[in-house]
Amino acid sequence: MFYSSTRNNDTKVASADAIIKGLAPDRGLYTPVSIPVLTATEIDVIKSGSYKDAAKLIFAKYLTDFSEKQIAVCVDSAYGDSFEEVAPLYQLNDQASVLELWHGPTCAFKDVALQVLPYLMTTAIDITGEKNDIAIIVATSGDTGKAALEGFKDVAGTKIIVMYPSEGVSAVQKQQMVTQEGDNVSVIAINGNFDDAQTAAKNIFTDDVLNATLLAKGIKLSSANSINWGRLLPQIVYYVKSSIDLGGADYVVPTGNFGNILAAYFAKMMGAPVKKLVCASNQNNVLTEFIKTGVYDRRREFFKTLSPSMDILISSNLERLIYELSGHDGLLVEKLMRDLEEMEAYTVPEDIKAKIDELFYAACADDAETEDAIKRCYDEFGYLIDTHTAVAYDAYKKYIKDCVTEKVVIVSTASPYKFPIGVGDALGMDVDKSEYKILTDLEALTKVKIPAPLVGLEHKKVLHEIACNKEEILQTITELL
Q1: 7-37 pLDDT per residue, tens
Q2: Any idea what the CATH number is for the domain that residue 330 is in?
């Protein structure tokens, strides 16, 4: 199995190289040259086996330069004591289930990928004989940052720097990051939004002068964002496994950067019984508009919402979808991405728009609809959801009004306790107090326990206080490295 750049399919590397590099030299995203298809026997094995068994089988199809033993070590190490369960299904009613992806150490779905990525990265280093230290540069809208810091802390041969928008994350998310321990970790608050941080990260990866300077000092840059194939691959597993266990379902996925729902697309193309993909957006509804019209236009007001991890206007992983639907037309993708950079908009050809219509449904929710979804779900089922899952729940309700469906999976991406203000306000609580007091009030009201990783978080010592303007990101990161 080889990987090509979405902007030049003549560029081909093995999976270990793709994981180490993160981003292709032409700013494209490494994508498999073909999507492997599951056999009937493999589907039976996945249905009867454990989550770890499914992960090992699927990884082996994509990581053909990794040995069976290396893959087993990566999976067993990642999904051990850190998870009670990796991706359990909770049944709401006869039609809808919730795929809970937040049972890892940081209470967000990013743990499923970012607990295993450090093992994939260090194994890739062994396979390639890489001698340089790997510096992981991460832009986060909230959850990726803590999950990446937790995954890479004190991993030999790596450094990790996380950038987050200073006013664009919840107090709980921020506290998780700024209290992170580890000799190889750094955290930077950016006076800007996630798109500013993500753009800066991509610019750093393709800055030839900086990269040459760092290489001379024995440092090579990589990423833990979902632009790195090693981040996206583990997410495919929970769509394959859950869809096979259910015998097929539509999936409603809250998404900002398009990585999580793209993993569902790959699962579907592998032959897993993933049916319609429902893209759920918040008020920053650039993806909803794109799926409905074929026009991607970031020239719009940016909203800070109750679902901050989705407050994104540049959805990087959409590039991979267009590459797939265009038959790996790197020239087309390069042109569209150049249009986005220069004119802040692009339009896909009609044949690609037709394929999008077959695959996707899209809906969006503003903050009022998000809070209403939290209350409706709790009142009807006694089930507590966070503000991002609530966007998906609202999209689910809109979807079943428009479309006939038998089974639907609502993808739940975070514990409700990571966003207590929005959740508490939706349930009519007094939220004019600290987020940590709201946590305990929410637990008392709902009898749902606060996850162990969040208990006592407010008392942890702040270890990271670096802040900078978006224009100073390059200088700040260079100094840290």
Answers
A1: 998 889 999 999 999 999 999 999 999 999 9
A2: 3.40.50.1100
Q: Would you call 110 a catalytic residue per the annotation? A: yes
Q: Annotated catalytic residue: which of 21, 110, 397, 398?
A: 110
Alpha helices in 68-207 (DSSP H): 68-78, 110-114, 117-128, 143-152, 171-178, 194-205
Those residues with Cβ within 8 angstroms of residue 65's Cβ, 6 or more apart along the chain or in another chain: 1, 14, 15, 16, 127
**For residue range 189-242, what is the model confidence (pLDDT) as tens digits?**
999 998 999 899 888 988 999 999 999 999 999 999 889 999 999 999 999 999
Rounded to whole angstroms, what are the CA distances from 412 to 41, 46, 98, 290, 422?
Answer: 30, 22, 6, 23, 16
C-alpha closest to that of 226 among 413, 380, 81: 413
- Predicted TM-score (pTM) of this structure: 0.94
Q: Is the dihedral of CA 207, 34, 115, 173 positive or negative?
A: positive
Amino acid letter at 60? A
Which range marks the domain in which residue 438 is found? 89-108+229-450
What whole-number distance in Å separates Cα of residue 408 and Cα of residue 81?
30
99 falls within a domain: yes
**Position 318 in a domain:** yes
Whether 73 is in a domain gets the answer: no
Number of structural domains the chain divides into: 1
| Phi and psi torsions of 446, nearest 5° | -95, -15
- Residue pair 104/82 in contact (Cβ under 8 Å)? The answer is yes
pLDDT tens per residue across span 391-403: 999 999 999 999 9
Give the span between the Cα atoms of 280 and 456, in whole angstroms.
32
Q: Is residue 360 part of a domain?
A: yes
Pairing of strands 360-364, 89-91: unpaired
Residue 81: Cβ within 10 Å count: 7
pLDDT of residue 206: 86
**DSSP-derived secondary structure for 412-478:** E-B-GGGSHHHHHHHTT---SS-HHHHHHHHHHHH-PPPPGGGTTGGGSPP---EEEEGGGHHHHHH
Query: Which DSSP state fits 29?
Result: B
